[in-house]
Specification:
This protein is 51% helix and 16% strand. By secondary structure, it is α/β, with parallel strands linked by helices. Strand 2, helix 1 and strand 3 form a beta-alpha-beta unit.
Amino acid sequence: MSLVQFTKQANLAMLTLDRGKVNALNPDVVEDLRSGLRRAISDDDVDVLLLTGTGAFFSFGFDVPEIISYERTAFDRFVHDFTSLYLEFFECPKPVVAALNGHAVAGGCMLALGSDYRVMARGRAKIGLNEVTFGASVFAGSVEILRHWVGHRNAERVLLTGALYSGEQAVALGLVDEVCEPEEVMATAIRAARAFAACDAEAQRSIKRILRRPVADRVRMVEASSIREFVEIWYSPNTRERLSSIRIH
């Protein structure tokens, strides 16, 4: 059974994370997301892609209780696949809108930042990169993409404090573009998607390449070394102890 549902509404393709309570990320989810993204890109009838989740979470991030048991080689392969995925979203030639139905934390936030436009639910939902609070580092690619959206000073604030932000706070920082009532998130995201789809597709692709290529080039230069450092810290005794206390189900 797919952990990511692929549906179409006219020229809009929708990828919906559907993996239990918190939509935690593991290798199967990453592969399903990549498959859905590439399917949308290759479909000439699709002009825009919408990414969302089910329930109260867009995504909690990595499925730590599962992934903590991985041998280092398997974990290294997973993080390489995940970092490649958020860069694929960031460079997608078609517009990507994220409908953040709930919490978008750590890896879930990284995934959301790969989109062109983010709509977030008002209220209890939080977004942020809180890795520092449980002893983990971040990937250079996620730093570059975050900095692209919020600027260097705000990126430092987000990353070094590990704070989680409400929709209103996230808009002020540039983490998301709109905040609305939870029941309005999907309709608001679809309106944003339709606005993107109304533009000339070829011109839009060209402009997006110009905007994104410098960021993506920097990511490719530094991502591998940052992954090595991330993995070293992930397997350090202090971080392993902190990770072992995380419960998500």
